[in-house]
Amino acid sequence: MPGENLSRDEARERAALLSVDGYEVSLDVRSAVGDAQGEGPRTFRSVTTIRFRCNEPGVSSFADLVAPSVTAVSLNGRDLDPSEVFDGSRIALEDLAADNELVVDAQCAYSRTGEGLHRFVDPEDGEVYLYTQYEPADSRRVFANFEQPDLKAPFRFEVRAPEEWTVWSNGAGERADGVWRFAETKPISTYITCVVAGPYHYVTDSYERVLEDGTRLEIPLGALCRKGLAPHFDADDVFLITKQGLDFFHDHFDYPYPFGKYDQAFVPEYNLGAMENPGMVTFREEYIFRGKVTRASYEGRANTILHEMAHMWFGDLVTMEWWDDLWLKESFADFMGAFANVGATRFKDAWITFANRRKAWAYRADQLPSTHPITADIRDLEDAKLNFDGITYAKGASALKQLVAYVGQDAFLEGARRYFKRHAYGNTRLGDLLSVLEETSGRDMAAWSRSWLQTAGVNSLTPQVLLSATGTVDELAVVQEAAESHPELRPHRVAVGLYRRTAEGALERYARAEVDVEGPRTVVAELAGAEAPELVLVNDDDLTYCKTRFDDTSLATLREHLGAVTDPLARALCWSALWNMTRDALLPARDFAALVLRFAGRESDIGVLQMLHAWTDSALVHYAAPEWRETGGRLLAEGALRELRDAAPGSEHQLAWARFFASVAAGEADLALLRGLLEGTEKIDGLDVDQELRWTFLAPLAAHGAADEGVLAAELARDDTASGKRHQVRCLASRPSEAVKAQAWAQVVESDALSNALVEATIAGFAQPSQRELLAPYTEKYFAAIERVWAERSIQIGMDVVRGLFPSLRDSRDTLDATDAWLSAHEGAAPALRRLVLEARDDLARALRAQACDGGAALPGAA
Fold it and tell me: Could you give the count of Cα atoms lying within 13 Å of 116 in the half-sphere of its Cβ?
């Protein structure tokens, strides 16, 4: 049998044969506590009964299960020999009847990688916590099933757990005779079933609403986290956003929330941001803030809560047939997260965050060699795992924002309402959604889909301004360009804004026109005769998805007056455009850094400011010419410290500048200041150095050899928690020592003893920009190890290692050549592995082009 990597063809063949009537799953997780027994992985008992029909009796098929061992298999009352029918990932099913019952009794393994049933031991108190995470195909690590999204079925779960534990699942549960039994679910896909178990801290609330037909809808609400995080858990705010979101989606979707209760679990060592399991949403526990954070962090959490809530309709109620149409849930949820945040919560500027942060993710992904249409060609599960990317999420959401501008918000939402009612509890493809949007908008959705959903790449839009003899606009046009590899010129509904400085010096919009941009050049007739602009902003108001470029006059204006742009969204769009120019080797990295030093201190939007800090750090590390890095780092540290001291005491801007200062601190005086702030011998008025900020300050001290193992051990004793352990592991791996690097490498690459969270922390510490020479031996080691790592480790750990340990800091032609040599010699490697290496190679080539631009050398070709 082919093994774990289910193909699309196999899934389609099985779906054509089978339909599933229901699952009964019984888990015994009492083995999660106490000492492990014997050798091998710690396991739990899983007994699954599946009732299903086959429309071609007599044929063969298979069920999915990834488990160390199977005790018994029964098909239609016949006992089968597990050694003959189970190969470690599939159970062979021969001579199927019209109506079938499969019973599988297995020993499944607890996970330490966040895939399947993850087991976490809290170092603070020794308590054990369990949760499941399945997307795209890891429920088969917990119970036998047909692991594909279009074989939906109702599920009944029962769980035996330690007496002092509480257990949650998708449906409401009760404990009787030592067993937790849960209400049967609606028909759902395997990957969104869920079990959470342990001594979690649990808070309850409820949501009520009178529906249009007069009936009362009541939804029990719950929120849970580890006991150690309970003092930091602001459940009231979680419930506030939850209720606002439920109101918003009920107002707009005209389809009551269909899954009964609504629990939200914040769980440890989580690989994702969150997961939309109906009735039991899981989140990474970092959304519970142990220290002071900025408003942007609360906005981000609200966006994630609303994103997952949107999935209750887009994804859970109506599910894509196969992972090709992953966008049918993720693009919509990403769009709805911002849409609902603006429409329902206190975060009215969420579209600014979307334009500045989410789209940056999409622009990067869409210029990689692995770029793909929003509707992707997903051949198998490994493809699916890698396609949870910036295109599927943020570009797809951007396309939907453009679609709303194209068809109108009312037609868009009416299309969604019809889609839910027409396909409730079913599975869909692209055409199912397009058909309802055609009905509600009267627009040709096929043409729109071909341009936006079925082609890859990002267009660039540049203004051309011709002035008359009197100094007014004679003609203003928008020039559209596309990369040679993806030449599609899309139709764009855009707003073009004209800006001039006022008498007070503010740079404000005085004229605006909306226009449909099509083809290589579009004249904006409405702006002819307008006063000559100092700045032309194509895609003003961020209606479309494109890389915005500037004419020479506009770029000169921004160099001198960017901080004077008064509208926060327009200012964010200018910053985003300048960053794209830096990445594309059209603007030297030192020029971008200079703009940040000159104008970022005036940035009012805290999310934009924090994004600028991240971009500037990346510009210094990857895009600056090597000979300028030391100078650039010193200038950034001086500027960050100046802004830190000038910021309002206790403000979130002060906190943001403190974190940025730590990220660029390298000189003796900077490190001494950080040490003084930790020891209390230095003070900055209003800056509260809480535990999370202490670790932030310790990170550069460790990386520059100014905080040894003893200092880090003392800090862990001060913060002896799971979070503290992750911070300590990262700092330990960041120390500038050959022995330290060798140990970190061995822990991640040669051993599987670390959990996913500690693998992530070790990788984050391993590669430090100040240690490029120390990392030199690991280029060859990396290419020698990655194929073995990919074959032996879980796909999540494989992705972490291949992405995280790529020698990007050895940014030279030699590293590029080594990458090409590996790709040439490993044409038969797993496609998903080759994709990751190709992406890393592209990032490296882009960095070398940007460095040439920054150093003034002849460019080997802009992106």
Answer: 23
Q: How confident is the model at residue 860 (pLDDT cuts 50, 70, 90)?
A: very low
Residue 361 makes CB contacts below 8 A (sequence gap 6+) with 390, 393, 394
Cα dihedral value 572, 577, 578, 579, nearest 10: 90
Residue with tokens 């990689």: 368
Residue 17 region, left (φ>0) first, then alpha (ψ -120 to 50), else beta?
A: alpha
Give tens-digit pLDDT for 138-178.
999 999 999 999 999 999 999 999 999 999 999 999 999 99
Phi, then psi, of 538 in degrees rounded to 5: -75, 145
pLDDT (tens digit per residue) in 93-142:
999 999 999 999 999 999 999 999 999 999 999 999 999 999 999 999 99
DSSP H helices in 254-373? 295-311, 327-344, 350-353, 359-366
Pair 796, 832: CB distance under 8 Å: no
Q: Are 757 and 133 in contact (CB under 8 A)?
A: no
Residue from 18, 326, 310 nearest 152 by CA: 18
Structure tokens at 842: 């592209």
Report the distance separating Cα 218 and Cα 214, nearest Å: 13
Give the C-alpha distances (Å, rounded to integers) separating 661 from 657, 693, 694.
6, 12, 13
- Burial of 285 (C-beta count, 10 Å sphere; 0-12/13-18/19+): buried
Q: Looking at the annotation, which residues are catalytic?
A: 308
- Sheet containing 547-548: give its strands across: 521-523, 473-481, 460-467, 547-548
Specify the 3-state DSSP secondary structure of 684: coil
